[in-house]
Automatic annotation (TrEMBL):
DNA-binding residue intervals: 32-77
Organism: Datura stramonium (Jimsonweed)
Superkingdom of origin: Eukaryota
Entry keyword annotation includes Kinase: no
Domain Homeobox: 30-76
InterPro entries hit by this protein: HD (IPR001356), Homeodomain-like_sf (IPR009057), TPD1 (IPR040361)
Name by which UniProt lists this protein: Homeobox domain-containing protein
Record-linked PROSITE patterns: HOMEOBOX_2
């Protein structure tokens, strides 16, 4: 009976010893792998082959263990970083709520009072409308001031031209001296034409043209050489229009008085060169005056009045002949 019990006990003890030895062997393998991993997480092939021989494991198993270990370490790091970020977000959220509460207490005392809110909104709208009206008035005043400055400039220019002409006549002196025929023709250089860029219209350049009669008397039938003039902006045809290629008519052919200024704007992708036409007849443009007797040294104001009375309109093909 005792022998049977001894026989049943021996196999159990053997199995336990085998389990213990396997457990120790597994722990030793893991410890060895951990030591190698701490030194080199990505071992080279010859290192893995040496471990395979030393631990009696397949090299594929060792490679899988190292790969799983790297994934585990990375996952641990990611979890730690996410936890840190979560804690920072919670802290920021708490601070944000606290700041919003403080701001609401200080600057939004009327948030819970709809009537007061509507009153404030109405006050703001009224103030905005008032500012808009003041802005409109200011713009109107500015435009009127600029226009008045422009008019004053033209008047001063005209006065200076008339004064210079009167002084020239006074210096010449002489009794019953008539104006020579050479004085009756206004040279082309006395018709000033200038143009400059003034902005854009829908992306197309805009140019301003100013024509000034600097002759001492009136001129009519003024034609300009303007090439194939064209514009995307409408121009008053009584001020400027193209009759044919390289032929444009100014002031509808009517008289342009001494010192008179004409201006218009046109829009095109480039600037057209403009000059007084060379193909016009000698009569056009022609400046005519009625000669007057000059005696003594009249004052400038009296001379200006006489000149204004003596300037007579001329037609495109007719000019009065001076008389002695």
């Amino acid at each position: 009976m005792a022998s049977r019990n001894d026989a049943s006990v021996e196999p159990n003890s053997v199995q336990e010893n085998e389990k213990i030895s396997l457990r120790r062997s597994f722990e030793e393998v893991i410890q060895k792998l951990e030591e190698v991993f701490s030194e080199m997480p990505n071992p080279e092939t010859h290192v893995m082959e040496k471990l395979s021989e030393e631990l009696e494991l397949d090299i594929t198993q060792i490679g899988i263990w190292f790969e799983n270990k790297r994934y585990y370490i990375q996952a641990q790091k990611d979890m730690e970083e996410r936890e840190i970020i979560r804690l920072e977000n919670e802290k920021l959220r708490s601070e944000n709520l606290q700041m919003c509460s403080e701001v609401k207490k200080r600057f939004c005392a009327t948030c819970n009072n709809p009537k007061q809110q509507r009153a404030i909104l109405q006050d703001l709208q009224n103030e905005n409308a008032k500012l808009g009206e003041e802005n409109t008035i200011l713009i109107d005043l500015t435009m009127k001031s600029l226009f008045m400055i422009y008019v004053i400039f033209l008047l001063v220019l005209f006065s200076v031209m008339q004064t210079n002409h009167a002084l020239r006549l006074v210096k010449e002196g002489g009794d019953e001296k008539s104006v020579s025929a050479a004085e009756l023709t206004c040279p082309k250089s006395r018709i000033q034409i200038s143009q400059a860029a003034s902005g854009t219209i829908n992306g197309i350049p805009e140019y301003s043209v100013i024509i000034i009669n600097e002759c001492e008397s009136s001129c009519s039938g003024i034609h300009l050489s303007c090439g194939e003039f064209a514009t995307t902006k409408l121009i008053n045809p009584k001020i400027f229009r193209r009759l044919a290629i390289n032929d444009c008519l100014v002031n509808d052919g009517a008289t342009l008085k001494s010192g008179q200024v004409l201006s218009f704007t046109y829009s095109n992708s480039f600037k057209y060169p403009m000059s007084l036409s060379k193909n016009i007849s000698p009569v056009s443009p022609r400046c005519c005056t009625t000669p007057t007797k000059r005696t003594g040294m009249p004052d400038v104001y009296t001379k200006l009045v006489q000149l204004s009375k003596n300037i007579t309109p001329v037609s495109q093909r007719h000019c009065t002949t001076p008389t002695s």
